[in-house]
What does this fold into?
Amino acid sequence: MPATPRKLSLLAGAPLVAAVLLAFGTGSAAAAIPINQPMTGTATYFTDTGYGACGTQINAGTQLLVAVPAAWWTTANPNNDPLCKGISVKVSYQGKTLTLPVKDKCPTCNSTHLDLSKPAFAQFAPLSQGVINGITWQFVQTTVSGQTVPVGAPVTGSAAD
It folds into this structure.
């Protein structure tokens, strides 16, 4: 019988331990975004309208924006994800560069595949091409006005915000 009270006290502490682990785990979400680290990948385009993963209205058929691969999202509620807090993607291809705000998630894209809005894709290639291989892209921190923040500036926002 003495083992039962100890077992119950261990079980009673489990929610506290889980809460502490969750609290510490969410602080690293912003650090997981590789700011200013170029990647090479693929781009396609989409034309969705409605609410994007960041919780704001989008029209990928008319606005300049990007949907980022699901692999880079770090929170269960994407509205609270660091990607939705001042992070953009700087995309370059054949001498052209655009900096696009992250507004949506691409659940079918691998970690180096971006889904650009229709007008963003059209800046790089004819829509009839459908896929652009060999793009270079990187996450950048931007201000509220969309200006790129210098390298080395801290990334703000976390899952707790």
The mean pLDDT is 79.
